[in-house]
Amino acid sequence: QVQLVESGGGLVQPGGSLRLSCAASESIFSINAMGWYRQAPGKEREWVGNIVSGGRTNYPDSVKGRFTISRDNAKNTMYLQMTSLKPEDTAVYYCNAFYSDNTLYWGQGTQVTVSS
């Protein structure tokens, strides 16, 4: 059972930046894809972006140009760098990992609050 642990959430002012981390308990070297999702109160979970094998990243228009996903295979960790944050980015952020055995794992989430 792979464990994913998100960290780095917190309170930030509009226009600020945060970097979230998603640490996996097992190697992510041969992983198919890792991604970030978020869920705001009363809303459905929303895809924030992903990074696939080979390192290509994909983002929805809502965060493109503001959010950047990267990974460090040596640390078994994926990152979400968030800049120019807006109040509407407030949500619980979750990471997931899709391993080569077709198993999908989720982290427990980390709260991001954008407010002045």
Brief rundown of the structure:
This protein has strands at residues 4-7, 10-12, 18-24, 33-39, 46-52, 57-58, 67-72, 77-82, 91-98, 104-106, 110-114. It is an all-beta fold and 116 residues long.
Uncertain residue segments:
none
Average pLDDT confidence is 95
Give the overall form: globular
Total helical elements: 0
Q: In terms of structural class, how would the helical and strand content be classed?
A: mainly beta
If you compute it from the alpha carbons, what radius of gyration comes out, rounded to the nearest whole angstrom? 13 Å
Number of strands: 11
- Quote the distance from N terminus to C terminus: 40 Å
Order of helices and strands: EEEEEEEEEEE
Strand content: over 45%
Helical fraction equals under 10%
Major pleated sheet = 7 strands, mixed
Question: What attributes characterize this protein structure?
Answer:
116 residues
How would you characterize this protein structure?
- The protein is mostly beta strands.
- Helix content is 0%, strand content 50%.
- The strands form 2 sheets. Strands 2, 4, 5, 6, 9, 10 and 11 form a 7-stranded mixed sheet that branches. Strands 1-3-8-7 form a 4-stranded antiparallel sheet, with no helix packed on it.
- The model has no long low-confidence stretch (mean pLDDT 95).
